[in-house]
Amino acid sequence: MKLQDRCALVTGASRGIGRAIALELAMQGADIGISYQNSQAEAEKVCQEIEKLGRKAMAFCGSVAKEGDVQAMFTSFFEAYPQLDILVCNAGITRDAPFGRMTSDNFQEVIQTNLVGTFYCLREASRPMLRQKYGRVVTISSTAGLAGNVGQANYSASKAGIIGLTKSFALEHARRDITANIVSPGLIESSMSEGLSEKNKEKILSMIPKRRLGLAEEVANMVSFLVSEDSGYITGQIFSIDGGLKT
Ligand code: NDP
């Protein structure tokens, strides 16, 4: 197992891609802390699934968009786990609208959750990882962050921001065996993609050479590699998982 006895924190892991990442890392031998905002029952179920794999699991409730919640989450994590080897910043939201109808609240909510939330988590991870001279960080961006997307100015900006943020983290931490990479999924089957209209989904499918949506497990496999020892010389890079979509 590639991650035997590593300790990992995965944000937004009560469902979707985060859940798949948490389970894959547990399958590879890591103990996992998961975060969620509302879905307590789902989060508890993920913890039970991790425990069935023979690994320790704990769920932390709070919003990554709130500085105090993130600080509390890291404090609780360090009370329960001896170190933080792996951080996966996955929690994210959409609030889509065309430019002319996008409210400032919708714009700011998405930036605050996706980008500022990721910043809060990376900042909390920085000192402990520097101290232990080891760390593997993965952030989740999106095709929209690379290419933009109609109706997603807020989301695209937040996901583009995550790329600069992660690359800066990678540069600042590289000398202490800490890597930070970005995974950029295309359209993945999850509750987030279920929100798309059929028309929109068909249009996107026609642009994907693989002609299907991606699976959360396919994203999890890439993350699992990037947080392992095997990827120690890879940092500050973007990995697209998008069925060949041109960006
Ligand atoms: P889901 O909507 O299925 O799940 C989102 C997860 O994030 C949930 O666990 C949710 O918790 C959590 N979350 C949301 N807001 C917060 C918050 N403020 N604080 C803490 N946790 C929060 O999303 P996906 O699995 O589809 O997406 C996961 C990531 O992948 C996101 O960053 C998304 O932008 C990105 N992505 C997804 C794509 C897709 O096609 N699905 C494509 C490209 C990127 P709760 O259940 O409690 O609400």
Brief descriptors of the model:
binds NADPH dihydro-nicotinamide-adenine-dinucleotide phosphate; Rossmann fold; alpha/beta; 247 residues; 7 strands; seven-stranded parallel beta sheet
Summary?
The protein has 247 residues and is α/β, with parallel strands linked by helices.
Describe the fold and architecture.
There is one protein chain. With 247 residues, the protein is of the alpha/beta class. It has nine helices and seven strands; from the N terminus they run E-H-E-H-E-H-E-H-E-H-H-E-H-H-H-E. The chain has a single domain (7-240), classed as Rossmann fold. The termini are far apart. The mean pLDDT is 97. NADPH dihydro-nicotinamide-adenine-dinucleotide phosphate (NDP) binds at residues 11-18, 35-39, 42, 63-65, 90-93, 113, 140, 142, 185, 187-188, 190-193.
- CATH fold-level label: Rossmann fold
Ligand set = NADPH dihydro-nicotinamide-adenine-dinucleotide phosphate
What ranges have pLDDT less than 50 throughout 5 or more consecutive residues?
A: none
The name of the CATH superfamily reads NAD(P)-binding Rossmann-like Domain
Order of helices and strands: EHEHEHEHEHHEHHHE
Instruction: Indicate the structural class.
Output: alpha/beta
List the helices and strands and how they pair.
Blueprint lengths: L6 E4 L5 H12 L3 E6 L3 H13 L4 E5 L5 H14 L5 E4 L14 H29 L2 E6 L2 H5 L5 H21 L4 E8 L5 H4 L3 H10 L8 H11 L11 E4 L6
Parallel strand pairs: 1-2, 1-4, 2-3, 4-5, 5-6, 6-7
The structure holds NADPH dihydro-nicotinamide-adenine-dinucleotide phosphate.
